[in-house]
Amino acid sequence: MTNVKSLRSALVPWLRIVIALFFIGVIFALVLNVLQVQRNVAAFSRDVLSGLALFGLSMSTWWMLPSYGTGAVLIGLAFPCADHHLGESPKIKNEWTSIMRCTALWIGINHAAATLNFSTPAQLTFWVSAMSLCLWWLYDRTRTGLFLAMLSAVVATGFNQILVSNGVFSYNEPDLLSVKSWLPSIYFSGGLTIGNIGRQLVVYEDLYKPHQD
């Protein structure tokens, strides 16, 4: 009985973190879609589910919410776990006010990518990439965070490419195969944001103390 209680007490904090990250991922999916769809960056099928029509989601794209939620759980747990096992922690002190600023900057990068007009797609891609690297510099500055964010960008962009190739949705005027060339930077900065949220949730639950330099 004691072992069962100990296991439960050990698992409950992680379960709370998983649930929190999942719903944060769902919210991020809604933000990303409402910006891209309303700004005519991406087009989904029109069999619109009335409850989600505001966010540009349709009956055939309901799976995006659990997909983004699951991705947020994996990324959000990968960052603090990698920090713990590799002995590396963010050079910038993480706290909830810092997390909110990081999230606001990610939303701003998304909004700019969907609304700003540059003379060439390459200029927009350069600007979004620069802002994403600034986000890493301001709120992370670790090799672990850089690698995991790059991995997130590659995997998520590849997943988008597969979906577009199968006709699930499409990007208007794609310039990187069938997607937008700035999309990897969006997922890069999004991965960093989710990763920092995961780090802070682990600190909040006091599961283990991050290594200090």
From TrEMBL:
Keywords: Cholesterol metabolism, Endoplasmic reticulum, Lipid metabolism, Membrane, Steroid metabolism, Sterol metabolism, Transmembrane, Transmembrane helix. The chain crosses the membrane at residues 14-35, 47-65, 122-139, 146-169. It comes from the Eukaryota. It is a multi-pass membrane protein. It holds the Pfam family INSIG. It is found in: Endoplasmic reticulum membrane. GO terms for cellular component: endoplasmic reticulum; SREBP-SCAP-Insig complex. Its main location: endoplasmic reticulum. InterPro entries: INSIG_fam (IPR025929). GO terms for biological process: cellular response to insulin stimulus; cholesterol biosynthetic process; SREBP signaling pathway; SREBP-SCAP complex retention in endoplasmic reticulum. Belongs to the INSIG family. PANTHER family: INSULIN-INDUCED GENE 1, PROTEIN NSG1-RELATED. This is Insulin-induced gene 1 protein.
